[in-house]
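Support request, please re-run this one:
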Amino acid sequence: MELLRAALLAAALLGTAVRAEETPPLGPVFMPPAGRGRPLIPCLSRGDLEVVYPELGDVGCTYIPECRQYRQRISREWSSPRVRYPRADKKYVLVMVDPDAPSRADPRNRFWRHWLVTDIRVSAPAPFPPNLLPYVRPAPPSRSGYHRYQFRLYEQPAHEAVALSAWSMERFVERFRLGSPVASTQFLTKHYGD
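Re-run finished. Output below.
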Protein backbone atom coordinates (compact mmCIF):
# COMPACT_ATOMS: atom_id res chain seq x y z
CA MET A 1 0.00 0.00 0.00
CA GLU A 2 2.84 2.42 0.85
CA LEU A 3 4.46 1.63 -2.50
CA LEU A 4 1.22 2.45 -4.34
CA ARG A 5 0.82 5.71 -2.40
CA ALA A 6 4.43 6.69 -3.21
CA ALA A 7 3.90 5.90 -6.91
CA LEU A 8 0.71 8.01 -7.04
CA LEU A 9 2.43 10.90 -5.27
CA ALA A 10 5.37 10.75 -7.69
CA ALA A 11 2.99 10.72 -10.69
CA ALA A 12 1.07 13.71 -9.31
CA LEU A 13 4.29 15.67 -8.75
CA LEU A 14 5.53 14.83 -12.25
CA GLY A 15 2.21 16.00 -13.75
CA THR A 16 2.46 19.28 -11.81
CA ALA A 17 6.02 19.85 -13.07
CA VAL A 18 4.98 19.28 -16.68
CA ARG A 19 2.00 21.66 -16.37
CA ALA A 20 4.23 24.32 -14.75
CA GLU A 21 6.56 24.24 -17.77
CA GLU A 22 3.62 24.82 -20.12
CA THR A 23 2.32 27.84 -18.22
CA PRO A 24 4.04 31.12 -19.12
CA PRO A 25 5.35 33.03 -16.10
CA LEU A 26 3.37 35.99 -14.80
CA GLY A 27 5.09 39.27 -14.00
CA PRO A 28 8.82 39.86 -14.41
CA VAL A 29 10.97 36.95 -15.51
CA PHE A 30 14.20 36.42 -13.61
CA MET A 31 17.19 35.15 -15.51
CA PRO A 32 19.79 33.72 -13.13
CA PRO A 33 23.31 34.65 -14.23
CA ALA A 34 25.96 31.94 -14.08
CA GLY A 35 27.90 31.62 -10.87
CA ARG A 36 27.05 31.54 -7.21
CA GLY A 37 26.23 34.61 -5.18
CA ARG A 38 25.32 36.78 -8.16
CA PRO A 39 22.01 38.67 -8.15
CA LEU A 40 19.03 37.63 -10.21
CA ILE A 41 18.17 40.05 -12.99
CA PRO A 42 14.58 41.24 -13.26
CA CYS A 43 13.80 41.01 -16.95
CA LEU A 44 11.82 44.08 -17.91
CA SER A 45 11.65 43.17 -21.57
CA ARG A 46 8.66 44.22 -23.53
CA GLY A 47 8.24 43.51 -27.22
CA ASP A 48 11.00 41.94 -29.26
CA LEU A 49 13.72 44.56 -28.92
CA GLU A 50 17.16 43.12 -29.68
CA VAL A 51 20.36 44.82 -28.48
CA VAL A 52 23.39 43.09 -29.98
CA TYR A 53 27.01 43.65 -28.96
CA PRO A 54 29.98 41.96 -30.69
CA GLU A 55 30.77 38.47 -29.38
CA LEU A 56 27.92 38.64 -26.83
CA GLY A 57 24.89 38.59 -29.10
CA ASP A 58 21.57 39.88 -27.78
CA VAL A 59 22.24 41.14 -24.23
CA GLY A 60 18.60 41.62 -23.28
CA CYS A 61 17.76 40.34 -19.78
CA THR A 62 21.26 39.21 -19.02
CA TYR A 63 24.37 40.32 -17.21
CA ILE A 64 27.71 41.03 -18.80
CA PRO A 65 30.15 38.36 -17.62
CA GLU A 66 33.68 39.16 -16.56
CA CYS A 67 35.17 36.30 -18.60
CA ARG A 68 37.03 37.23 -21.79
CA GLN A 69 37.18 40.80 -20.50
CA TYR A 70 33.61 41.47 -21.70
CA ARG A 71 32.97 44.09 -18.99
CA GLN A 72 36.12 45.97 -19.93
CA ARG A 73 35.40 45.70 -23.64
CA ILE A 74 31.80 46.96 -23.37
CA SER A 75 33.07 49.90 -21.26
CA ARG A 76 36.16 50.81 -23.29
CA GLU A 77 36.23 49.26 -26.77
CA TRP A 78 32.91 48.47 -28.35
CA SER A 79 30.89 51.13 -30.09
CA SER A 80 27.11 51.34 -30.03
CA PRO A 81 25.25 48.05 -30.26
CA ARG A 82 23.08 47.00 -33.17
CA VAL A 83 19.44 47.49 -32.23
CA ARG A 84 16.58 45.74 -33.98
CA TYR A 85 12.82 45.72 -33.47
CA PRO A 86 11.24 43.24 -35.92
CA ARG A 87 7.75 44.78 -35.70
CA ALA A 88 8.93 48.28 -36.63
CA ASP A 89 6.65 50.04 -39.07
CA LYS A 90 6.88 53.65 -37.89
CA LYS A 91 9.47 56.13 -36.68
CA TYR A 92 10.85 55.59 -33.19
CA VAL A 93 12.86 57.21 -30.41
CA LEU A 94 15.50 55.01 -28.75
CA VAL A 95 16.78 55.87 -25.28
CA MET A 96 19.54 54.07 -23.37
CA VAL A 97 19.69 54.99 -19.67
CA ASP A 98 21.34 53.93 -16.42
CA PRO A 99 18.72 54.17 -13.64
CA ASP A 100 21.39 53.30 -11.06
CA ALA A 101 23.77 56.26 -11.49
CA PRO A 102 26.02 56.75 -9.65
CA SER A 103 25.04 53.60 -7.68
CA ARG A 104 21.96 51.57 -6.82
CA ALA A 105 22.36 52.62 -3.19
CA ASP A 106 22.33 56.32 -4.14
CA PRO A 107 20.72 56.80 -7.59
CA ARG A 108 20.72 60.62 -7.46
CA ASN A 109 21.48 60.78 -11.21
CA ARG A 110 18.75 58.27 -12.03
CA PHE A 111 18.18 57.60 -15.73
CA TRP A 112 21.57 58.92 -16.78
CA ARG A 113 21.44 59.20 -20.58
CA HIS A 114 23.86 57.06 -22.52
CA TRP A 115 22.24 57.30 -25.92
CA LEU A 116 19.33 59.10 -27.57
CA VAL A 117 18.37 58.56 -31.20
CA THR A 118 15.27 59.93 -32.94
CA ASP A 119 13.59 59.46 -36.32
CA ILE A 120 14.72 55.85 -36.58
CA ARG A 121 13.27 52.84 -38.30
CA VAL A 122 14.70 49.99 -36.26
CA SER A 123 13.98 47.23 -38.79
CA ALA A 124 15.82 49.06 -41.56
CA PRO A 125 19.25 47.69 -42.47
CA ALA A 126 20.59 51.22 -43.01
CA PRO A 127 22.47 52.92 -40.16
CA PHE A 128 20.58 55.05 -37.67
CA PRO A 129 20.11 58.73 -38.45
CA PRO A 130 22.44 61.13 -36.63
CA ASN A 131 22.21 60.67 -32.86
CA LEU A 132 20.59 63.41 -30.84
CA LEU A 133 22.96 62.31 -28.09
CA PRO A 134 25.99 60.25 -29.19
CA TYR A 135 26.43 56.79 -27.67
CA VAL A 136 28.24 56.79 -24.33
CA ARG A 137 29.57 53.38 -23.30
CA PRO A 138 28.36 51.82 -20.04
CA ALA A 139 31.08 52.54 -17.47
CA PRO A 140 29.85 52.11 -13.90
CA PRO A 141 32.17 53.64 -11.29
CA SER A 142 34.45 51.30 -9.39
CA ARG A 143 32.87 49.72 -6.29
CA SER A 144 29.39 50.99 -7.22
CA GLY A 145 27.97 47.50 -7.72
CA TYR A 146 25.83 46.30 -10.57
CA HIS A 147 24.09 48.83 -12.82
CA ARG A 148 21.08 48.22 -15.05
CA TYR A 149 21.39 49.62 -18.56
CA GLN A 150 17.95 49.99 -20.08
CA PHE A 151 16.98 50.43 -23.72
CA ARG A 152 13.53 51.90 -24.28
CA LEU A 153 11.96 52.23 -27.69
CA TYR A 154 9.09 54.68 -28.10
CA GLU A 155 6.89 55.30 -31.09
CA GLN A 156 7.64 58.83 -32.24
CA PRO A 157 4.45 60.85 -32.73
CA ALA A 158 3.87 61.92 -36.33
CA HIS A 159 5.14 65.40 -37.17
CA GLU A 160 6.91 65.68 -33.80
CA ALA A 161 10.54 66.78 -33.68
CA VAL A 162 12.21 65.49 -30.55
CA ALA A 163 14.89 67.77 -29.12
CA LEU A 164 17.36 67.47 -26.30
CA SER A 165 16.57 69.48 -23.20
CA ALA A 166 17.18 69.39 -19.46
CA TRP A 167 16.87 65.73 -18.56
CA SER A 168 14.19 64.04 -16.59
CA MET A 169 13.18 60.76 -18.20
CA GLU A 170 9.55 61.12 -17.13
CA ARG A 171 9.26 64.75 -18.27
CA PHE A 172 10.98 63.95 -21.58
CA VAL A 173 8.49 61.16 -22.31
CA GLU A 174 5.58 63.37 -21.27
CA ARG A 175 6.73 66.50 -23.14
CA PHE A 176 7.09 64.68 -26.45
CA ARG A 177 3.97 62.55 -25.87
CA LEU A 178 5.89 59.32 -26.29
CA GLY A 179 3.60 57.25 -24.05
CA SER A 180 4.71 53.80 -22.93
CA PRO A 181 7.65 52.07 -24.61
CA VAL A 182 6.61 49.76 -27.45
CA ALA A 183 9.65 47.64 -26.61
CA SER A 184 12.34 47.62 -23.94
CA THR A 185 15.11 45.48 -22.49
CA GLN A 186 18.08 45.82 -20.18
CA PHE A 187 21.36 44.25 -19.18
CA LEU A 188 23.35 44.30 -15.97
CA THR A 189 27.06 44.98 -15.52
CA LYS A 190 29.51 46.46 -13.06
CA HIS A 191 32.97 48.04 -13.23
CA TYR A 192 35.35 45.67 -14.97
CA GLY A 193 37.91 46.00 -12.15
CA ASP A 194 35.51 44.92 -9.40
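The two ends are 58 Å apart (CA to CA). The chain has a mean pLDDT of 77.
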